[in-house]
Amino acid sequence: MSSVSPSPLIALISSECSQKHAHNRGFKSLSHFIFPFTSHECQVREPIDNLKASQRIRLDIRDISSDGHLLTLSVLPYVLIQALKTCTDVSQSIKLFRDVLARCSEPSEHESFGHYLACIFVVSTEDENPLGEFSKMIQTQQTLYNTTSTLMIPGHCSTPKWAAPHAKTPRHYILLHDSRSPRSSTERRDELLAQMCATYGNDNCQMLQLDSDSESAEMKGVWDEIDEFNDVLEKGLEEAHQHSTDAIAPGPNGASNQQSPSSPTSSVATISSTMPAVGSVSPNSHPNSTVVWKSSKKLASLADAKAVQAILSKFLDVCLIPYVEKEMRFLYETAGQKKGIGKSFTSMKRWFGSGTALSNMATPITYAWDSSEMQTRRLADLLLMFGFPNSAFEQYRGLKRDLEADKAMAAHAVALEMCCVALHSAQPQLNANQFMIKYLETPVSLLIEHAKRYPSILRCAFNIADIYSDLGLHKEAALNLAKVSSIEGDHLVAVAQTLAAEQFEKAGMGRKASFHRVLAANRFSNAAIPALSFDCYRLALPAFDKKHWGVLDEHLAVRLLEEGQKAGVMTTDIASECIRRLVAVCPKLSPSLQTERLRTIVNALDIYFPHRNEPVEMLTDIPKVEMETVKAIYGERPLWNEIDENEHQSVSSDGWITVERAAHHALFGASAPYRGMQLVSDEHSDNQKIRETPAGERFRVMVDLTNPLKIPIHLQNLRLSVSDIHNQSGIEGSEKSIPELGALEHLQLDPEETKTIELYVFPRVGCLKFRVDGLLFQLAVDQKDVEARVPLKCRGKRLNKTAKQQKSKIYTNDERLSATVAQKPWPLVEFRVIKSPHQWSYCDQAQRYQLEIENIGHENVMSMCLATNAFDRVAAGSIDENEHHQQFKMNLAANNAKVATFRFEEGSTSSTDSFLKIGEKKRIFFDVRSSDEPTGSTVAPKQSNTVILIAYRSSNGTMRQWRRVIDGERRRLIALTAEILDLDTKSFSIHLKNCVAVSQAALSRVEILRIRTDRNEASTGIKNDCSTTVLPSVNRRVEIESEQTDTIVARLVPLSQGETIKESWLTTTTSVTPPKWPCPAEIHSTMDDEFASKIAEKIGILWKANIVNNEGLVTSFIGESFIDDPFVKLKTLKKDDSVLSSLRISCETTAKEISHNFSASHICELPITLLIQNKDLQRRPVSVSIKLSSKVREPVDGIHLVAPENRHQMWIDRPVRKQTIGIDDEAKLEMKWKITHAAVYDVGGANLSIEAIFEGSNDAVIFKVPSVLSVVKSSSYTVV
């Protein structure tokens, strides 16, 4: 409807009968009917070059009695707001807004646009006196020249303005003949037309005949544009009328409300009060509430349309165009002659008029209609309207200079605007470098500062922005539109900011575009236009996706939900995105805001997803599911409190498999194929295979839920979501095999609290397979709750073997939440720990565990066994009702010689006998001897933790397990060494030392109870051919307290034939029953040191300790320590081996972890101490040399040729040290390593070696130094 060049404005005055014809045909007015047919091609003569040119002109024909320019303050704002409310798409709404603004704005006093150029009079053959009606209408037109006249003018329109005096205004007369009318006759029509031609001339009179009597399909949609405008106008007028009625309604005290009539909303109320009020809407001027044209059919045919086009074409050719050509010629001839006089006169008026210079400068300068400035302006406007933009540009350019010289800045800005419009219309091919860009820079700012009329400001801003955009200067177009933000009126600023955002987007400035869309959305919201506010927020949303702008994400999401609900245009996709963003940003907000936002989330879910069949999956972080804590437990055991969380740190997965395999072979035989017994799957287990779970037992899932908010949240009806269910087909009642879901009725998570929950799936017989894929719950806020679902998908371990796996993140499949259902029942035994020792222990201490086992399942337990990796430190047995202990026999596992198994048998020879029947209880025990080295020992290699696994099976071949890791801190209590005294009598001494310091305990007394010789039948070490027993030289009570030492002298005596006693008790008063565990077994393995000697013969020393700690706690326990038989060791070792065992070497450092500032000092020093003791069996002194073994032993041309891990990064202060050590003496050597880089270093091991030469021999023997690791960290400070 609108265009850059305004259309010529034509007034239409019609009789009452003429308007009735329009109404009967379904139109609001005659101007409504003829609107689509007002564009025509015509020949217009240009006044300057006097040449004719073909132009296409669209006339703007308005019915004076119903249409016109709306009042700027009291009516136009409401109509503009209605234009924006018509459509939910912001682009379409702004297009309609611009059309309404261009058509309905009051004309400016600085231009001739909006002034009526001619007048068309229409009468009907139905009128009683058509010529008399013409006379009345002519008189009415004459009165309209009076600015105070309100005759025919609607109350919502301003007084019409005319381009020429009444006498000079061209008039055209039309006789309307409707063939549908019952009183219509061709004779009367012809007679009236002849009278009109005789009175007003043949060229000025025409007859319009309408013959259609039904709706034509050819004309469908022709009037859609004007219908939309009329609909907007009607709604705006109704709202303006309502506001006017409310404004003058009496208040509670009888006085009228003082609310401004220009304030339909907050946006309209902000229109500048400096604008003079042209008029107001009278309550009596409200249009008829029954709008016929909206619902009536439009009775018009293609022939009627052609008739109207012919009428208007003749009007242009014989009436309007000749008048315009004459007027333009006159203005061109007179404007130049009066230019100097007019300008001088205007200047003199400014200087000699009343008032001070200051007051004159403060008053906006206006010009009379007949002044030279306005004559030039009228000429330029006519040239632009009738298709001569080149000539119009020349007139505008000269005029804007004169107006600028007169300081008439408002008129200058309007002229400058049209100068740009005319230039762009005349030469659209100009680019940004060729166009006069300086013309575009100031008009908007000048109008904002001087004119203060929002229609003029908006029109100028839109026109200038369009030109900028066509020139490719989108950023400048956006900045020009942004200037409108300084005016008042939220809906006006919102339109400008939306257009600015579009220009920023075209300029590639996405963030600025989104920012301005958010600003526009806020303005639309203030102006009570929620649909456009929602659309602007929606367009801004993608630009901020995954940018982690928490506050902005929260603002956008909340505003979208609010505005979408107000406008009723919210979609489920956008609602889901808003909820997702709110959930993500909610933990970052304050507690009060978190409460509000949580309520917003629940309300949005309740409103936009009320009839959902599936739970929503948008609450992924409220609460947060800690996926790394997911555990799947296959069956009723183990219970949640029986699971060791740190089990993976003590025993590797391969270690467990080794013990499980041994137990499996013990139950089923060595040839039975191994099946895994994994009952618990977590992030540390092997989860690539789908495990089995028994039917009729719970498949339990444990997971941690964290409340990320600073407020409590309430969850209800928590349960698992199960999918991929496979049922056994062809059985009766297969629908009953659907798994049952266990539910947690209520769970409250306090602020930032984490709780572990256990939920389950109960598969029945007939269910073959299922998968847990989510967590279902209801989030309750106030009185509302929403069903939500959080997906549960565990990620496997990362693969890091191939180059592709190292460069990209590839993970294994994790099937811990999938399960196949075993149709045969599993045995189920309850293990209750009756007795267990303390967490920490002393080396070689005896620890007894007593268990009560009960068959609580539905299957008899046929057999049970215990498997352990401590093959030489565990004994197991059962306890009967009379407290009699029966020892079980130990067997080495078929798959590993270092794993022991114990079969729980009671002498039954039948394979059909059950070990533990349903409901039966028994007691079992197992004794564990602690490792002989303390925790963290650096002298001896690290001992593995003790693994206890009890497996049992049923008659149908199913099995289950119970397992524990015995892992505690160990401390040294007693130290033992053996020394040969006499080889002939086999006398030897045992040196004892209590290693507990005086300061560590109030009392630490160790009593030696028994000495025995033993040999583990499982040992593969060197054995003695004959059995011996040990006899102490003196039978005495041996007790040593803290830090005390003692020596027992004994001798080995061969046993007589048939004699089995191999022990000697040193006390007769004790009632201690010693455990019947085997002595340490020496098992040869491919991993063992090839130089190490393994002795099967051992001497065991049974002792009892009584300790009172510093807090007064008394403990008493027994233990047994073992040493190698010194005579077997001496007799059987090879010569080289005896030499290699002659020196006892230990390496220690006080700096196992050190921080060093390499920036301040490039060298870090690590002190070490070597202890070398001469225990040569041949009693020879030895000369030792300590040598440094460099990693790089061959010369190289440059350090760059050596791999980084092999470069020499450490050296010692003295690489060679020599010392002679006598028999039984000990040498202590202190040295310092010098380090240049932060790393983990072995300060012994491969770097140091000891070369020894014994007395009487010239051969040097090389000894190894034990490995000791030291961690050197780089830090900004040095820890000494």
UniProtKB/TrEMBL annotation:
Q: Where is the TPPC8 third Ig-like domain?
A: 985-1123
Q: Where is this region: Disordered?
A: 245-287
TPPC8 second Ig-like domain residues: 843-966
* Regions of compositional bias (Low complexity) in chain numbering: 255-273
Annotated ranges, domain TPPC8 first Ig-like: 644-840
| Protein origin, superkingdom | Eukaryota
Where in this chain does the record put each TPPC8 C-terminal Ig-like domain? 1151-1246
| Protein name per Swiss-Prot or TrEMBL | Trafficking protein particle complex subunit 8
Q: Which organism is it from?
A: Caenorhabditis elegans
Q: Which gene encodes it?
A: trpp-8
